[in-house]
Design a protein that fits this description.
Helix content: 40-55%
Strand order of the largest sheet: 1-4-5-9-8-7-6
Shape: rod-shaped
Distance between the termini: 90 Å
Bound molecules: adenosine-5'-[phenylalaninyl-phosphate]
Oligomer: single chain
Structural class: alpha+beta
CATH architecture of the largest domain: 2-Layer Sandwich
CATH topology of the largest domain: BirA Bifunctional Protein, domain 2
Largest sheet: 7 strands, mixed
Order of helices and strands: HHHHHEEHEHEEHEEEHEHH
Radius of gyration: 44 Å
CATH superfamily of the largest domain: Bira Bifunctional Protein, Domain 2
Number of domains: 2
Number of strands: 9
Length: 344
């Protein structure tokens, strides 16, 4: 019986020492199993009452009950303490949650080289007082050819291989020039407008030709407009795009039924002085065809050619993007390759 009393007192001491070291719920659960479960130390002490005499039971029974109550109380108190600590830690985590701390591979969005150059061209023309116009990509034979002085069976149709649609007389526009007619129909001179947009041609692709590419149409109509206005406008555009005052232009005769005279405007290579791979060692880069708007085209647009004259041009926008950023294959521009696009 003195043995049992000693065990009771030791059990409490032992429990207190272990409990003081408990820091989380798992450790607390272990201590509960050791002391308070059916096979635990308290239950074992209870069993050891059995062989004792009635008087001994009367003396040790209350001691054991008291031990059990005390241990249960200590256990519950610790349980509450741990719950409070855990709640405080959670609060702290939320309070100091840094929304910018999680940064997986950063993905930056940006404008494609095509959009960047299109915006540059638009800004340059807006600064010269031009309007920006748009037109349908699915066009009629009338706007894409006939109104531009290219009647049915005219050999100039062969210059632009056409994607004809199943609907008779409908096509994917081969050039942005139909917007000239649409704009003249709805606006009176003086007219100063550019129209950037996508065009389509049934062509085999290579490094500098695509079946879909972008052009920028330009149209200026007023009284006494001459070819020198066209050349000055193109020179201004090229100098601004290539940030250079030293770009020369060269004019060669061209042929388009909707302009007379028709010219091809080349500009001096902004990348070299004596020939390079971009200008194919020629020092000149071919970019903008244009000319003075043919009187028949003015008439189709509802403008009197005896009063007004004008110039038009059709800049190869996709080619300009290639030149600006020294891109050597046109197909990269709509290849959707992220490592290519990330360079701009
Ligand atoms: C035209 O399309 C005329 N509409 C341009 C014009 C407008 C002349 C107004 C006169 C007055 P052309 O077919 O040459 O012309 O095309 C114009 C430009 O588009 C070319 O100089 C070239 O830079 C670009 N281009 C033509 N075909 C392709 C192609 N397959 N891929 C990429 N760019 C092309």
């Amino acid at each position: 019986m003195p043995e049992l009393k000693k065990d009771i007192s030791n059990t409490k001491k032992e429990f207190s020492v272990i409990l003081a070291k408990v820091t989380n719920e798992n450790e607390l659960e272990k201590i509960r199993l050791t002391f308070l479960s059916r096979q635990g130390k308290i239950a074992t002490l209870m069993k050891s009452l059995k062989p004792l005499s009635l008087d001994e039971k009367k003396e040790c029974g209350p001691l054991l009950n008291k031990l059990k109550q005390e241990i249960e109380l200590l256990y519950k108190t610790k349980q509450k303490e741990l719950a409070v600590q855990q709640a405080q830690q959670e609060n702290l985590k939320q309070k100091y949650f840094d929304v910018s701390a999680y940064s997986p591979n950063q993905l930056y969005g940006g404008l494609t080289p095509y959009s960047q150059v299109a915006q540059m061209v638009e800004d340059i023309f807006i600064s010269m007082g031009y309007d920006i116009a748009d037109g349908p990509e699915v066009e009629t034979d009338y706007y894409n050819f006939q109104a531009l002085n290219i009647p049915e069976n005219h050999p100039a149709r062969d210059m632009q291989d056409t994607f004809w649609l199943d609907v008779p007389g409908m096509l994917l526009r081969t050039q942005t020039s139909p917007i000239q007619i649409r704009y003249m129909e709805n606006n009176k001179p003086p007219i100063a407008v550019i129209a950037p947009g996508r065009t389509y041609r049934h062509e085999a692709t290579d490094a500098s030709h695509d079946f879909t590419f972008a052009q920028v149409e330009g149209l200026y109509i007023d009284k006494n407009v001459s070819i020198s206005h066209l050349l000055a406008t193109i020179k201004e555009l090229i100098q601004k795009i290539f940030d250079s005052k030293k770009i020369d232009i060269r004019v060669r005769p061209g042929y388009f039924p909707f302009v007379e005279p028709a010219v091809e405007v080349d500009f001096s290579c902004p990348f070299c002085k004596s020939g390079c791979s971009v200008c194919k060692q020629t020092r000149w880069i071919e970019l903008v065809p244009g000319g003075l708007v043919h009187p028949n085209v003015l008439r189709h647009g509802g403008i009197d050619p005896s009063k007004y004259s004008g110039f038009a041009f059709g800049l190869g926008l996709t080619r300009l993007v290639m030149l600006k950023y020294a891109i050597n294959d046109i197909r990269l521009l709509h290849g959707n390759k992220v490592d290519f696009l990330q360079q701009f």
